[in-house]
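May I ask you to comment on the folded chain given beneath this request?
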Amino acid sequence: FQGMNPEVSPYLRAKHLMMAGCLALVALTTAVIYAFRSTPYTMVLFLGGGSALLFAAVLLLGWVVWKDLRARLDSIAIKEFAPGQVIYRQGDPPEHVYVITQGQVEAVYADPAKGDIIVGRLGRDEYFGETAILSRLPRQVTMRAIDTVELLAIHRTDFLRVYASLPQLRARIEAQQPHRKDLVNRLRSTN
């Protein structure tokens, strides 16, 4: 699509990482002070204050890693759909990209004059839903399970992050976009 400009949101926990780094640097400073000036006071400063600061930095870093891991695990979910069940409807806002791990789905265009038109079928290891996210438009077709389907649902935010950082994936997806756009435009023009 013209002007596909995926918006990648800034890293949410940058402040926490910066704080952990600063705590670690202050802890290191106490060690340097103790190394250059060994007195009972600097020893207490290093052993008490430096150790506490370093412990706080490690805890904060661990918390950031844990929160990021949980966010990644929560943003990619396995979803199952029964035959005939709608995955999303034409006009819905785009929230996820889906990768088919089992089964088949069909893309259905709701034409006001002609009714539902099946425009395509997808199977195992194929993906869908990225076009609406990249174009920032509502869903252009309804996706429906043909048989029992298992999908990997990837949240929009994480998809955009991966899309922006992996040139080969971006090239593969962009190569498919003109075909998908043309298909929807042809359907619209037949009205």
In short: The longest strand covers residues 115-122. The longest helix spans residues 40-75.
